[in-house]
Structure formats: structure tokens, C-alpha cells
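Sample 3 of the quickstart, ligand flavin-adenine dinucleotide:
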Amino acid sequence: MADRRITIVGAGLAGALLATLLARRGWSVDVYEKRGDPRLKGYEGGRSINLALAERGRHALQLAGADEAVMAHAVMMRGRMVHFADGRTDLQRYGRDDSEVIWSVHRGELNITLLDIAGQAGARIHFHRGLERVDFDTDTATFLDPRDGSEHPVDFSALVGADGAGSTLRRQMAACTELGERTDFLGHSYKELEIPPAEDGAFRIEPNALHIWPRGRYMCIALPNDERTFTVTLFLPNESERPGDPSFETVRDGATARELFERDFADALALIPDLEQDFERNPAGLLATLYLDRWHLQGRAVLVGDAAHAMVPFHGQGMNCAFEDCVALADHLEHADDCGRAFAAFQAERLPDSRAIQAMALENYLEMRDRVDDDDFLLQRTLERTLAERHPDRFVPRYWMVTFSRIPYGVAFERGQVQRELLVELTRGHASLDTLDWDVVDEAVRERLSPLPADNVL
Ligand code: FAD
Ligand code: 8R5
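Result:
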């Protein structure tokens, strides 16, 4: 590409990573961020929020030269630690060994690391600059300094919207062309709570796991932080389906939250000393999926990450997917003749994959909250592991494809559907694997699942 100038809106996770990838390839990169520099003293950071980093995200961080710095503070999560209603716990491993794990990272620290390396790579980051409007006739973007309300017009060559789920650039693009935007609200929201360290400074529960308290229509999860706290997230429906079911209508303040925890999450309650304050102080987060049919405006602007395809959190892939977008967009920009072609090729590659991970994220809510302690599900899971061992090139568990490989999400989704059908059919009427006819089982796998290319199986 001849004109190697780019203007990125938003210096969050995707914006900072994309800036690095392009600046390292010699692009002239300007990033405009609404908030202040989180590295400066007095910055009003968010709470201690952590995210699960998986293979797709790690691969992108490696390409940007950021993996080592990020991993220095990451906490390994080997599997789901399921906390049953009767207080029993069970660790369900995600992978085969400690090379197949996910990592809990602190959002604020991750963002700072990415801003540092973006700056080192030569990207110019302008803080206190919120995109206000775009004039696509004159190629001028106007940014507002929220501190004094001053306006700052900037000429651009091409814009990238990495400004998150509430993207202003998306709204400006939609004023010029139909994007086919649709938001599906899940009807459930979340609230964050905190488990502090024990008195001797240690983790209060197993640090190397993602904890889940599944309770049917709702659940809690907890992810470890390297300062030995856990961020707990309570997911609840907004409204009660049946009288007596808990929802954010019935659980509306610290006292009703305590009642819910006394009844349903007693072992967690003992770990959260400030439950009432956390519940009342922290806002409830909405959960929704954002679908667009179009992500770009010819060669002038393109959307990435949450701005293009916000998803529900239940696969822990929002950031991982956003990072994978950045790698794909940087490659298309590098190899196409102009931005118009690069943006179109990027959308053609990534839009179907984003739809697939959005669907899988929705499905994983049901699995996490409802199916982890169900007998049919457990038998299917055992068969899944057995088939993965018997047919490592054909039967690769969907969770594994999403989390530990870079197989396109769309392929993981399609193969996952075939595998799900096989597991249901093959276990129907069986209480254990002992009664299965393995010749029939193996034949069904060979018939319905083609071998994956060797380089897709880690
Ligand atoms: P963001 O990270 O939201 O960045 C957007 C940036 O744009 C921000 O810095 C914002 O200030 C800036 N901005 C906004 N408007 C403007 C404007 N008008 N002008 C200039 N700048 C602007 N994903 C995972 O993969 N694993 C997880 O475990 C996980 N856990 C999560 C936990 C929580 C509580 C939440 C909320 C999300 C989680 N996600 C997780 C999803 C993940 O955070 C997002 O998918 C990811 O941050 C998307 O990156 P982004 O750069 O597109 O958006
Ligand atoms: N995001 C996650 C998983 C899958 C875990 C499994 C699930 C909180 C708002 Cl809900 C959730 C996962 O299948 O066993 N991996 O990573 C992260 C999750 O939630 C994050 C922390 C979250 C948005 C609140």
C-alpha cells in the first residue's frame, strides 16, 4: 500500500495492539483516546477487573512483542472449579496438561503494557480526545477534549474504529451508509464483587482455576488476580420468570444480595466481606450481542473489536477475538493495494467468524450455569474426551478449538455442531460408556468428521 497513514479511534485493548502491529511495520499511526493516560498519577482507573487470555490473544501479543510482559503478571487457570450447591467442588480441566490452560490478566495493566509498546513502536497516542463527529466529504474527524470541551479537528487518510461497544465512529458511519445494525439484549446482567486475600496474604481459594457456582438460571464466577484477590461476577436475569426466582428485580440492594448468597452461594459469601458495599457501589453491566452486516465505509473507515461485534462474555473470547481482528486487519492492510480492498477483505474474512463466536458465547452461558453438573452432560463429556483420544485428527472438542487453537471460529462452530450431534446420538439410552459398541462409534466419527489439517492440531 502506498499511503501508509492510519488514524485509530480508541486506545483500549484492540486500538493499542493494532497501533503496535502497524507502527512496527513502518506505518504512521495516530491513536485518539477519550480517557486520560492510565500511566499518569491520579488516573481514575477502573476496579480490579480481570480477563481470560487464551491462545488467540496470546498469539497476537507474541506478534506485537508484548506476550512476555503480559505473562509476567498472568495467573494460570487450569480448568473450571465447579462449586456445587451442597458445597462439594470439582476441578474440570480445560486441556490435557498445563500447556492447555487459560490465563487471568488484569485489564488495566494489560492496557498499560500495550500503550507502552505502541509508543515504543512509534505510534503517537493522543489522550483526552473523544471522537465527536466525522465529515467524510472533507476527511476530517473532530475530537473533543472532555476536560474543557475544546474541539480538535484532524485530517485523516483512513479511520479505524476501536472505540468499543458504544462506538461513536460506528454511529458516524451509519449516518452515511446502512450498516444493518442490530443489538440483541440477553435479558441478564452482571455485578462484580471482590474476594480479598486471606489475613496471611494468601489466596482464599484455589488460585489456578476459573471458579463457577452454577445454579441453573444464574451463576457466579471468580477469576484470580495476581495481587491474590478474586474478581467475582454474579450473573442474574433482569426479571424473574417465575415468582420466587432471583433476578435483579428481587435482588436489588445489599441486603437482598446477602439473602441470595446465604441461600445459594453460602461458601462464596464467607469469602466476600464487603458484599453489601460491592453490590451497591458497583453498577450492573448489561449483556448484549451486536450484529452488523457491514463493518467498513469504502476505504475511509473500518470497525474492529467490540465496535464491530460485541458479544456476551461466556466464552471469555471478546478480547481474544478483538486481538485476532487486529492481526487480520494489519495483514490485509499490508498486502492490499488500497484501504478499500483491505477493509473489504478483512470483513469477508472476519465477519462470519465473529458471528460464530457470538453464537458459541451465547451457548456457553447455558453450559456454564446449567449443564456442568448434569449426568447426561457429564457422560457426553467423558465420551468427548475418549473420542478426542481415539481420533485426535478428527474429533477435537469445541472448547479446545476455540480456546487452544487458532482454527477459524466458523470452522470450530460447524465441527462443534456435528460433534454435539454425535455425542447425543451415541450416548442416548446409555448410562455409561461400557455399553457402547466401539466399532459403530468409530465408524460414525470417520463418516461425519473429516481430518483436520495437521497444523491445526496443536
Ligand atoms: P475496549 O477495550 O472497550 O476499548 C475501547 C476504547 O475506546 C476505550 O479505551 C474507550 O475509552 C475508547 N473510546 C470509547 N469511545 C471513544 C471515542 N468516542 N473517542 C475516542 N476513544 C473512545 N474478553 C475476553 O477475551 N476474556 C475475558 O475474560 C473477558 N472478560 C471481560 C470482563 C468484563 C467485565 C468485560 C466488560 C469484558 C470482558 N471481555 C473479555 C471482553 C473484552 O473486554 C472486550 O471484548 C475487549 O475489551 C474489546 O476491545 P476493544 O478495544 O474493542 O474495546
Ligand atoms: N466478562 C471467561 C470463560 C469460559 C469458562 C468455562 C466465562 C465478566 C463481564 Cl462468564 C466468563 C469465561 O467455560 O469454563 N473463559 O473466560 C470469562 C467470563 O466472564 C468475564 C470475566 C466477564 C464480561 C463480566
